[in-house]
Amino acid sequence: MKRLFLSLILGFMLTVGSAYAKDIIPTSPVLVNVHTVGLYQVGNEVTIYKFPDENSPVIYDVRWDENQFVPQSLTPEKFFSVFLSKKELALVNVVDVADGWVEIVYNNSTGETGWIKEDDPYKFMTWINFYNTYGKKYGLNLLKGAPALCKDLKSSPEDMAKTISTINVPKQIHLNVIRGNWALVSVMDMDKTPKTGYVRWRSDDGIRYFFPAVQSKN
Questions:
Q1: Is 93 exposed, middle or buried (0-12, 13-18, 19+ CB in 10 A)?
Q2: pLDDT band at 191 (very low <50, low <70, confident <90, very high)
Q3: Which pLDDT belongs to residue 192?
Q4: pLDDT at 21
Q5: I want to staple 93 with a disulfide (CB 3.0 to 4.6 A). Which of 97, 105, 155, 186 is the partner?
Q6: Domain final residue, candidates 127, 156, 181
Q7: Do 144 and 96 belong together in one domain?
Q8: For 84, what's the count of Cα atoms within 13 Å in the CB-facing half-sphere?
Q9: Are 104 and 148 within one domain?
Q10: Per the domain annotation, does 17 fall within a domain?
Q11: How many domains would you assign to the chain?
Q12: 96-118 per-residue burial string, b: 16 or more CB within 10 A, e: under 16
């Protein structure tokens, strides 16, 4: 009995300690924090302030390493928008960038925001830059729960444009170019029929329906 108890405790500690290390990639459209302008790459020590002022109240001191993520009440899933441990890629959603400060969404479940100091302006990427960088390299995934209209391949980047084909069961979605809220993609479906056309990658108010298919192993 004692050995079983110790095994359970050890298993729990290992689960808690390694929870942050799993890849975090959006799998369904995020409806809470749609009015974001891009992503910011953060390090493993982040101080979140209530206002863009070092004298303002501190909301959280976020820290993580190989063994833990603190505070436990926040959790990696709530904090990160994208986290790939093998690539050391840790990205959070950005609402605004101003005068050396970055307003981030620190809780993706509630949409709560706070401010962090900008330590490198090149760590900020607009959504367009992010998609052009990672979407063209890895391709795109259609997020679960995206409306059916996102599967329509249009002849031009307009809602009223002619539907020239439909995405069924895609094996690969290659991003060619982004034009506003539309993306020109080349799709290989399960039937191995190549298709090319425009899809809505996000709504007018910022809900993203497709997301770069980034992977740790690549």
A1: buried
A2: confident
A3: 85
A4: 64
A5: 105
A6: 127
A7: no
A8: 14
A9: no
A10: no
A11: 2
A12: ebeeebbbbbbbbeebbbbbbeb
Neighbours of 88 (CB within 10 A): 10
Residues 44 and 122 in one domain: yes
| CB 13, CB 83: distance < 8 Å | no
Instruction: Domain of residue 42: give its range.
Output: 24-127
Same domain, 98 and 66: yes
Q: Chain-wide mean pLDDT for the chain?
A: 89
pLDDT tens figures, 78-135: 999 999 988 889 999 999 999 999 999 999 999 999 999 999 999 999 999 999 999 9
In a domain, 2, yes or no: no
Residue 168 included in any domain: yes
Residues 116 and 204 in one domain: no
Domain boundary among 69, 95, 127: 127
Mind listing the pLDDT tens digit for each residue in 58-71? 999 999 887 789 99
Q: How does residue 75 score in pLDDT terms, banded at 50, 70 and 90?
A: very high
- Residues 121 and 171 placed together within one structural domain of the fold: no
Strand partners, 71: none
